[in-house]
Design goal:
Elements: H1 14-26, H2 30-53, H3 63-76, H4 80-85, H5 88-110, H6 115-138, H7 143-151
Length: 152
């Protein structure tokens, strides 16, 4: 008997993910909303790195690695546009949010995680994502500056 080939995962648009996250929150599926938000953060961070470094970090990069890379580039201060549009505090808040998400997941099997804690995680994630998305939309890497900065 022949095996069926698995279909590659569909590439869901950012707009669809936003709608799914909103729907999950509306129907009080806060944990699911948090995971959708994680995927949204991952996409935005990867897109930002591609824009700045002119290369794709690849599929193996986790959310933690993407956050670290963006923070490293910010601290390095080689890309003036990046430091101007993205506050290090925002990057740190995204990492803290991700760590809280991970803690909740570790706590679920061992103890009762309050619905309020999960709700707070999802709502804080939405707030952070809106702030990060606004920074991403206003971010433009000047071509002449980026070429100069890359050669320096």
């Amino acid at each position: 008997m022949k095996r069926k080939k698995s279909k590659p995962a569909k590439n869901v648009s950012g707009k669809k993910l936003t709608e799914k996250a909103g729907l999950a929150i509306k129907h009080e599926f806060y944990l699911e909303a948090s995971w959708i938000l994680s995927a949204m953060f991952e996409r935005k961070l990867k897109k930002l790195l591609i824009q700045v470094e002119k290369q794709n970090p690849g599929r193996g990069f986790t959310l933690e690695q993407l956050i670290k890379r963006v923070k490293y580039l910010h601290v390095l201060s080689r890309y003036k546009a990046l430091t101007a549009h993205f506050n290090v505090q925002l990057i740190d808040e995204i990492r803290t949010w991700k760590n809280q998400r991970n803690e909740i997941l570790k706590d679920i099997p061992d103890l009762h995680v309050s619905p309020a804690r999960i709700e707070r995680l999802a709502l804080e994630g939405v707030k952070l994502y809106k702030e990060f998305n606004a920074a991403c939309k206003s971010f433009k890497l000047p071509e002449e500056v980026s070429e100069h900065e890359n050669s320096a």
